[in-house]
Amino acid sequence: MANLITHSPILIIAIPLLAAFLTPLIDRVSKKARDILVIASLALAEFLVIILARDIYPNGLHIYTLGASSPDLTIPENYIVPVRIILEVDSMSIFMAIITATVSLAAAIYSLSFMKEETGQNRFYTLLLLLAAGMFGMELTGDLFNLFVFLEIASIAGAALTAFRTRFADAAEGGFKYIVVSSVAALMVLFAIGILYAQYNLLNIGALAHVMQYTMLDKIALALLVIAFMMKLAGVPLHMWCPDTYSVAPASITIMLVAASYACLYALFRTCFTLYGVCLNLVTVGWIVIIFGVLSMFIGVTMAVFQTDIKRLMAYHCISQTGYMLLGIGVGLAVLNQPEALSTYGIAAMDGGIFHIINNALYKGLLFLTAGALFQRTGTRDLNKMGGLAHKMKWTTIFYIIGALSISGIPPSNGFASKLLIYESVYRFNPILAIVAMITSILTLASFTKAFYSAFMGAELPEYQEVKEVPKSMIAGMAILAAGIIFFSLFPGLVVDRLAHPATAALISQGVYINGIMGGGG
Amino acid sequence: MTQGIPFNVPFLAVAAMIGIAFYIIISQRNLIKLVMGLSILASGANLFLITLGYREGGVAPIYTYTPAGIMVLPVPQALTLTSIVIAVACLALMLSMVIHIYRHTGSTDSEKSRIMKG
Lengths: 522, 118
Prior knowledge:
The complex is a heterodimer of chains A (522) and B (118).
Chain A: H1 2-29, H2 31-59, E1 62-65, E2 86-89, H3 91-114, H4 121-140, H5 144-162, H6 169-200, H7 205-211, H8 216-232, H9 241-248, H10 251-276, H11 282-305, H12 310-334, H13 339-378, H14 394-407, H15 414-429, H16 431-456, H17 472-490, H18 492-508, H19 510-518
Antiparallel strand pairs in A: 1-2
Helix pairs in contact in A: 1-2, 1-4, 2-3, 3-4, 3-10, 3-13, 3-17, 3-18, 4-5, 4-10, 5-6, 5-10, 6-8, 6-9, 7-10, 7-19, 8-10, 9-10, 9-12, 10-12, 10-13, 11-12, 11-16, 12-13, 12-15, 12-16, 13-14, 13-15, 13-17, 13-18, 14-16, 14-17, 15-16
Chain B: H1 8-27, H2 31-53, H3 74-105
Helix pairs in contact in B: 1-2, 2-3
């Protein structure tokens, strides 16, 4: 068991990666075996993530040096800097890995019936597993170039999956937008890595943070990294691709793309807090993140109110919810070197922001899956053409209500818990920001109520007389996420203390992360 | 002694390539041209990596058989190889998507082939 924990950082990435390329082979033998392989590999990854998390939360960060004689030998003999690729997993990384693992598992189970009618399913599952592996890699790695490679793996797989249903005219367009934005963002990351490497001859995040001088070139690299990750996580004003891509992707892929955008959010936080950390001009960078956050929050929700395409509506809400996370973390970043402000409200704001990531992955995932269920049964995403579906699709209706209550922050849902944390702490930082956040929340409720009435309420429409509830595997996929929401709603305090707060602590303690690389050695 | 080109010239080339690439990406409406712009951007980033690893008069960094003297940095070359492979994958995927867009809409002009708005 101890051995398994030691090697689990690489196994979490390697298992989906190997399974991805086994899938087409097994597919030739039996479809059922292929499905079992896909689900089993993601379930195994989820299991490894959980046992690793149970080790990391009490015992601190976990280092895994690839290719070394022992996993904790970060710096080879006769060297003074790390030269190997090192996976460095702290509470923040594993927190993100929990999200990725859960969402991927739910997406794969949901896909079993959702994609049943499509051609080329073996490639679909290969790409799905590659996307999962790319996200795990981004979250667990401690090496900048490795981060770039996994970013590209996730981008390419995500774009191919978005455009997967090529019989729809808009699918290729959504996929093309995603790959263009992703390529530009990834090349900006590569350029920033080049700038940093030119100065310090290092690629390891911890080692770079150790010697960071914060010269002019470093500032350029920072700007490139921040803009690139903002593009990938669809922060306003770089959000144009997001509604197009999210609305045309198969529903199970949309939720994985949401998780992938949070992997980029993680990369952004890792850049700001760990790579640059205290040598940043914290107030300026903090405010930039806050302004991006407030803009995303408000513009996202105001665009969402007018949408009639259900997945487009949800995609705009996704932008808006990302704004809450940026706001919470931005406030923490702005007060990072003011210990008093940090302890009175900065940490609480970050706890709220980080808690909101997992909440949003769960309820936004659930909502996108219910939208996929509606699309599966009615063949349209247009809310004006739907109606009275609550009579026929009881489970979908229940799941939609759970998700909608949670995203609107109705007590006692988990969305309420994380938003309350953000409101309270942000109010002490700057009251106007908290007010904008509350208005956003009200508009969110309004727009989900509208969507609920259009799709589910009213008399049964004649064209949907034959509509049935969706197959069991789709219900199972939604149930996983709904169970998560209910658990988080019942025990928000437990989740904040055990999951979100350690992640915050890991983000703000840059020294621990650096020490993991530079101090380990032996 | 190698008669090296002035050290700044490759960096100017990098800047020019990236400038041209961004101009193409922002201004061109034809999707194929957009893909070409992205390809130029990728080449610019690769040239940047190679240039920053270059050392005046350096030799190829092969440890087992190398004459005395300085070597160029091996790591940026490894990075560039990886980056080229990734760029090829992106390029192929983008072009295949353009083909699908063309099949459905009959145009590669981003204004005419565009379905989703708002």
